[in-house]
Amino acid sequence: MRFVRWALHGQLVSVESYPRYRRVYRTVDDKQLRFRRNRWWTSLQSADAQTKHELMRQRQEAAKKEREEAEKQRQKELQEQERVRRAEEEERLREEREERAEIAWQETQGRWAKAYARRAEPPSAGLAPSATAPGPATVPSSR
Fold first, then answer.
1. Smallest Cα–Cα separation from 54: which of 23, 30, 19?
2. What is d(CA 119, CA 27) in angstroms, rounded to the nearest whole number?
3. Measured at the alpha carbon of residue 118, what is the angle toward residues 124 and 107, in degrees to the nearest 5?
4. Which end of the chain is more exposed for a tag (fewer CB within 10 A), N or C?
5. Are 48 and 71 a contacting pair, CB within 8 Å?
6. What pLDDT, in 10s, does the model give residues 87-135?
7. Can you list the alpha helix ranges (DSSP code H) found in the chain?
8. Least confident window among 1-5, 42-46, 93-97, 100-104
């Protein structure tokens, strides 16, 4: 009886329910049943509160989505920075290896040049003068 009086006096209104609130669960004969409702009766104050709550929830979801997208963008930027850093590090290491290889090659060429110069010297050039001077046993006699 109160419901009819409230409806007749304009204290209740029929409002569209939001998709989130359309499912209604009821227990009938010890079974849990799910019903769907599109409209329901409620007070203007409750309808306004539901609308405000839905708008607040939508703002929160939008803010959450924005934060998640910002986090994804930040992660992409960090990955890109890391990729650039690795590429620079690899380039630096490659240059160091090339420099070490060039130094080793120059040292090798220097050793080869020294070895070649030693082979090109006459055999007596590196010995002491007394050891190379002809002695009496080696000098042919002119007699």
1. 19
2. 108
3. 160
4. C
5. no
6. 999 999 999 999 999 999 999 999 999 999 988 877 665 555 555 555 5
7. 2-8, 44-120, 129-132
8. 1-5
